[in-house]
Amino acid sequence: MNFxxxxxxxxxxxxxxxxxxxxxxxxxxxxxxxxxxxxxxxxRSPHRxxxxxxxxxxxxxxxxxxxxxxxxxxxxLWASIHIAGAFAAAPIARGDKALLMGQIESNLxxxxxxxxxxxxxxxxxxSGGRIVNVAARQALEPRLGTGSVAYTIAKSGVAALTTALxxxxxxxxxxxxxxxxxxxxxxxxxxxxxxxxxxSWPKVEEVAATILFLASPQNTVTRGAIVxxxxxS
Length: 233
Known about the structure:
The protein is of the alpha/beta class and 233 residues long. It has helices spanning 16-27, 39-44, 64-72, 97-125, 137-140, 149-169, 187-192, 204-215, and strands at 7-11, 31-36, 53-57, 79-82, 129-134, 174-181, 226-229.
């Protein structure tokens, strides 16, 4: 994919998938803008000090005003990739309203705020562009959400946001899509599930490759899609 001198926002750019996406974008010639909650995550990033990566302490992405300020500071934007989110597992008996709202804010509201701000930025700059969200397998197969109903609800909302917004923005030259990963092969997932068949999980680099295509200039027709990235699981 050719992102030469194109500006791309990557939320969640210091997590496992985010790092893989930023790596791939840099190799493809992009300039990356990574909003973070604070300095701690920046200090951990291997991309710290890279001139083509801009870290901004933007705060909570569920805060509309914080997101608006971040995007207003961009002088160029080709794509906005929304990886930031959180996972919480709890049976319904322990999944109270606070858990549900926390999952909705961290996963759905953050994606909505960033998608909206990206769309407004494309309009301000007079350009088309790309938006890629990250849903989850449970959004396409809700029966797999047993034990994590709140998360499943939130990620299903991300899928619905993507489909609806994809139809709304298509005539403006903005293609909106999402990936829906199963459990990904990360050190954290291997540690928390030591007996699982990790070899069947998709690798973050593989998921990143799908995200890059959807965000790329080479994608000229795909919009409103929720693309399964399940690996062999």
